[in-house]
Design goal:
Layout (H helix, E strand, L loop, with lengths): L6 H14 L3 H6 L2 H8 L6 H16 L8 H5 L6 H12 L8 H10 L9 H14 L5 H14 L18 H4 L16 E11 L4 E5 L7 H4 L7 E4 L3 H13 L8 E3 L3 E5 L2 E11 L9 E5 L10 H11 L2
Parallel strand pairs: 1-6
Antiparallel strand pairs: 1-3, 2-7, 4-6, 5-6
Helix pairs in contact: 6-9, 7-8, 7-9
The structure holds a DNA duplex.
DNA sequence: AATCCGGGGAC
DNA sequence: GTCCCAGGATT
């Protein structure tokens, strides 16, 4: 959960996840839909799929215990250098240094490393530097201490050098380069997209969700349950109406699409304007690919945050 | 080596 | 608004 995600954002998910699936055996045996529902809203959903696959491999091949061997850990889906080092050092006191965004920033300032830290050759050197510093024991405590130093003291903006325990060794500070190091991560230019979505509602307050309706909006909805939706350009209502007929058939022919308040959503480099349309119907469309459920019970299914925002636009009006 | 994948909290 | 997060997989 912590991969590229702040601790504060993870905590409530972590608590709910462990309460529902407290053991590796429970996780391995759970329906994938339950795992994804527990992850719903946290993002990077391949992590959830990989975590469950890893649990299944651990049960099948490692007697239900996370492997102590580095190579075996790296062979698990979703376990890379960082996570393997973190788990093995914290759980088993194995002598592997972690390198994450926090550690990289601390080391880059300590040694005044210029350039993009994520560039593979530079990242590898930083990993070697981290390993060379790992003379302390227990290794897990050392690793967590360096990460926490980065999180709380050696922060990206306005680091708290006055309270830093290693400021006297810091080359970036000596050179007055703490604001220039590390170099900012280069990012892809943002792209603007408009997505129109139809939120059906029957007299009992129920709606429909689909899965895998088309390739174009997978990015936004993460291949999970979603409202019928389509990317639109000039005439959102008309383009959505056409899409609904293609998706759902003639049942969608004479719908009245009532525009609701647009919402903003960002997925990596895409700036998305969500255009919700309420479709009041006496009877919901039926199909094997359709799930019917109350509009205020979306958390029962795996959905992305975009789907939650769309539902909220109806519930708030 | 590049690119992709979510979401939100801090500033 | 901007930045970046206890990264990993895929191409």
């Amino acid at each position: 959960m912590l991969q590229q995600t702040r601790i504060a954002a993870v905590l409530p998910y972590y608590d709910r996840f462990l309460a529902a699936l407290p053991t590796v055996h429970a996780l391995a045996a759970a329906p994938q839909e339950q795992v994804l529902s527990l992850w719903s809203g946290l993002g990077y959903y391949s992590r959830a799929r990989n975590l469950q696959r890893a649990a299944q491999e651990i049960v099948a091949n490692h007697k239900g215990k996370f492997p102590r061997d580095l190579e075996a850990a790296l062979a698990l889906p979703g376990i890379g250098r960082y996570t393997a080092a973190a788990v093995l050092s914290i759980a088993y006191d194995a002598p592997f240094a972690v390198l994450d965004g926090n550690v990289a920033r601390v080391l880059a300032r300590l040694f005044a490393v210029h350039g993009d830290l994520r560039e593979p050759a530079r990242w590898r050197r930083l990993g070697e530097a981290a390993q060379n510093l790992l003379a302390q024991s227990p290794a897990g405590d050392w690793n967590q201490a360096v990460m926490e130093l980065g999180e709380t003291v050696c922060t990206p903006q306005t680091p708290r050098c006055a309270t830093c325990p290693v400021s006297q060794f810091c080359r970036a500070r000596a050179l007055r380069l703490t604001n220039e190091i590390p170099a900012p991560r280069r990012k892809r230019a943002p792209v603007k997209i408009k997505i129109a979505a139809a939120i059906f509602r029957d007299p009992r307050g129920r709606t429909i969700l689909l899965r895998d309706p088309g390739a174009h909006d997978h990015v936004l909805f993460s291949r999970m349950w979603q409202f019928p939706a389509v990317e639109v350009r000039r005439d959102p209502a008309a383009e959505l109406a056409k899409h609904l007929q293609d998706e759902l058939g003639p049942v969608a022919a004479s719908l009245i699409l009532e525009p609701l308040r647009p919402a903003k959503h960002t997925v990596t480099f895409r700036n998305i304007t969500l255009l919700p349309y309420l479709a009041r119907v006496s009877r919901l469309p039926k199909s094997v690919r359709i799930r019917v459920l109350p509009l205020d019970r979306l958390h029962q299914l795996p959905v992305s945050s975009a789907t939650r925002k769309l539902a909220a636009s109806v519930l708030s009006q």
